[in-house]
């Protein structure tokens, strides 16, 4: 099985009927072997015979799709200069389209000496034990034509988008309509029962937590835990094999495509939460699985003062060096692959500030941002930044370029603080309700640059947000030290959800959940709903359930009956949002009439019925705000330049601890008002009120009124 010369491009394993071409970029290597594994794990090592432009390559005749392989890279072991070559370690192909197997907690997976899993060892001393029995294997994939059935991306405009953050496994594991053998898989999420729920809910876009091939950290595995969330990427082109019901020798690729096709057929977009800021190899004491053993100094930011160590802007031990041309090429090739070959509709970039770092500082004019902005494929898909990392200057909310949207943690904190009664007045809340112009307008961005969320995978669920003052992460095995202590939550006087026999307390907590969901889904910007919040899902106070692959994280679908009122409330809000462009503006409000003598496009009202004064905007004790949205004041136009018209609405958000009578705005603003929604009193809906009349707001409630002209 003598390799032919092959070709240096494309990188990775490229299947052909005659031979499979293998190409690996390893600029400082002295020799590269491709290692083929039989069904009994017998290994055949073949030296790649040619080197072109720092790429080692060769074509191996007779290698078929489904063949498992890896690389062994020879070169100097010199951690002090940043080089960590170790041919005893089998390395995953950075361009692998599929991966078979899992990682085993064994000291041989480390490139350096680690006597046992209970002893850390010395990261500067090389370990020569063979890692092949303990690491996943790359798989040769036949990229054959897939039956996309005239698949077309839904291309939902940003202003109409409603994101639904979910987990492939967690969403499907307990779903009664999904066959047991499909639960936890791509096929399970593509099942008609799962899709019917998503479409009936009213969301437009599914944002999947990481589905790139990931592994659990060896130390987690050793203590009997695992990485459930998946923010620990090994291979950036491969769909995670544990989510495949059909096999892991390349079958996961077609199963993922079939899932995307099914979601698209239902009109739903698919966005991937991607982790390019770090890899599964952790810090200098972490395992050698791929990049570290191929070109350590190129793939990672190393510390110039001690090149055996890494600069850690991610909190995981390493930071992927996306500013390096070859590494940037890998990331861009991966992104284009998921759009072009897998048909996904966009990406949410974990710790995106780390990707924008050139040498050390975050640079929005750097190579990554520039290349994304110029790429004809990627600039057409949805791009969402988690706009921070843990390094100096990493907090970049409001600073990303025009094509990007951002997770807006200012929105999250403002809404949480308002409804727990901790906000200093309502001024900041008004910015959040109207699209966060203070963050995005000065750069001529649009309101949909703001991804409005109150909860996400990282933190409390909505139900836990109103049930716990403190995190309860004991089940994670870290003595409750992990997870943030800044939850901005409120247990309403009783810690814990199971400990609430008081029906009045249960009703108040449910109302508070409704209040936050109502606020979010009626705000200008792009709402993101955390999967299960519409059902009242609880994680029992765990605000960092990254390792909980069990009922703590999986959605309990029996809650759909128990909390049917909450579920219908969310569905109703999403129907309202879809029907009314006045709550999904494409331009920022200006606070002035669109036509001379008309009503303002947006107006803010104090409990007195008058527009807010400067003093009231700075009154830290104010807990009530009225927001008037003028349906005849929409500043954007339709596709043919026609005016966009809608009804007008008045929303009150009242976080005070006592009931309050407010005076409605006078006759200039309406001839009457009709209650559309009241989070405290469903019976109030449909009631009419005269202008300037008194309106009773229940303590801690929202009320939405239609303006009748």
TrEMBL record:
Region (Disordered): 473-503
CDD domains in UniProt: AmyAc_Glg_debranch (cd11326), E_set_GDE_Isoamylase_N (cd02856)
Keyword 4Fe-4S part of the UniProt annotation: no
Hydrolase in keyword set: yes
A family per Pfam: Alpha-amylase
Domain of life according to the entry: Bacteria
Keyword line: Glycosidase, Hydrolase
Glycosyl hydrolase family 13 catalytic domain span: 165-577
Biased amino acid composition, Basic and acidic residues: 473-489
One BP term from GO: glycogen catabolic process
An annotated Gene Ontology molecular function: amylo-alpha-1,6-glucosidase activity
Family: Belongs to the glycosyl hydrolase 13 family.
Name assigned to this protein: Glycogen debranching enzyme GlgX
Gene: glgX
């Amino acid at each position: 099985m003598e390799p032919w010369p092959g070709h240096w491009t494309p990188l990775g394993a490229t299947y052909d009927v005659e031979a499979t071409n293998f190409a690996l970029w390893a600029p400082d290597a002295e020799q590269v072997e491709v290692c083929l594994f039989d069904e009994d794990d017998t290994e055949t090592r073949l030296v790649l015979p040619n080197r072109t432009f720092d790429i080692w390559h060769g074509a191996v005749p007779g290698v078929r799709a489904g063949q498992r392989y890896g690389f062994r890279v020879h070169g100097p072991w010199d951690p002090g200069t940043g080089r960590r070559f170790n041919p005893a370690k089998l390395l995953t192909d950075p361009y692998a389209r599929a991966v078979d197997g899992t990682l085993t907690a064994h000291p041989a997976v480390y490139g350096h000496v680690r006597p046992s899993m209970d002893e850390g060892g010395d990261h500067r001393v090389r370990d020569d034990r063979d890692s092949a029995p303990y690491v996943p294997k790359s798989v040769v994939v036949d990229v054959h034509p897939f039956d996309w059935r005239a698949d077309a991306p839904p291309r939902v405009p940003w202003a109409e988008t409603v994101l639904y953050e979910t987990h492939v496994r967690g969403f499907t594991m307990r779903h009664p309509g999904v066959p047991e053998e499909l639960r936890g898989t791509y096929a399970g999420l593509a099942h008609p029962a799962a899709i019917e729920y998503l479409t009936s809910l009213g969301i437009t876009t599914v944002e999947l937590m990481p589905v790139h091939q990931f592994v659990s950290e060896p130390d987690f595995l050793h203590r009997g835990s695992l990485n459930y969330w998946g923010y620990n990427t090994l291979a950036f082109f491969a769909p995670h094999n544990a989510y495949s019901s059909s096999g892991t020798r390349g079958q996961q690729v077609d199963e993922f495509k079939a899932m995307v096709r099914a979601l698209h057929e239902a009109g739903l977009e698919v966005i991937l939460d991607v982790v390019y800021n770090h890899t599964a190899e952790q810090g200098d004491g972490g395992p050698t699985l791929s990049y570290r053993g191929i070109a350590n100094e190129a793939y990672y930011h190393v510390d110039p003062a001690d090149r055996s160590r890494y600069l850690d802007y991610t909190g995981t031990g390493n930071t992927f060096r996306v500013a390096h041309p070859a590494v940037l090429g890998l990331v861009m090739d991966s992104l284009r692959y998921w759009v072009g070959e897998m048909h996904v509709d966009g990406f949410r970039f974990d710790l995106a500030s780390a990707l924008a770092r050139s040498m050390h500082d975050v640079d929005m004019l750097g190579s990554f941002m520039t290349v994304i902005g110029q790429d004809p494929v990627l600039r057409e898909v949805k791009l969402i930044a988690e706009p921070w990392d843990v390094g100096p200057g990493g907090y970049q909310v409001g600073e990303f370029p025009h094509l990007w949207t951002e997770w807006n943690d200012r929105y999250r904190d403002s809404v949480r603080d308002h409804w727990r009664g901790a906000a200093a007045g309502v001024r900041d809340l008004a910015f959040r309700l109207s699209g966060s112009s203070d963050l995005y307008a000065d750069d001529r961005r649009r309101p949909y640059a703001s991804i409005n969320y109150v909860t996400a995978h990282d933190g409390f669920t909505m139900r836990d947000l109103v049930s716990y003052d403190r995190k309860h992460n004991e089940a994670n095995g870290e003595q409750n030290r992990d997870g943030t202590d800044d939850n901005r939550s409120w247990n309403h006087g009783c810690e814990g959800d199971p400990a609430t026999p008081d029906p009045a307390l249960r009703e108040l907590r449910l109302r508070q959940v409704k209040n936050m969901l109502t606020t979010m889904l009626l705000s200008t910007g792009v709402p993101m709903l955390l999967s299960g919040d519409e059902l009242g899902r609880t994680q029992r106070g765990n605000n960092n359930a990254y390792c909980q692959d069990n009922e703590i994280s999986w959605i309990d679908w029996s809650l759909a009956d128990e909390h049917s009122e909450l579920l219908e409330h969310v569905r109703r809000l999403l129907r309202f949002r879809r029907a009314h462009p006045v709550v999904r503006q494409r331009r920022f409000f200006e606070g002035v009439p669109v036509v001379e003598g008309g009503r303002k496009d947006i107006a803010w009202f104090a409990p007195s019925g008058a527009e807010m004064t400067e003093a009231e905007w700075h009154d830290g004790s104010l807990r009530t705000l009225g927001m008037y949205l003028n349906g005849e004041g929409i500043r954007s136009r339709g596709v043919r330049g026609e005016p966009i018209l809608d009804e007008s609405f008045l929303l009150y958000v009242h976080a005070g601890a006592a009931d309050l009578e407010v005076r409605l705005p006078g006759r200039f603003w309406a001839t009457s008002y009709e209650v559309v929604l009241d989070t405290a009193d469903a019976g109030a809906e449909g009631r009419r009120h005269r202008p300037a009349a008194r309106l009773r707001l229940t303590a801690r409630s929202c009320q939405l009124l239609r303006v009748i002209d």
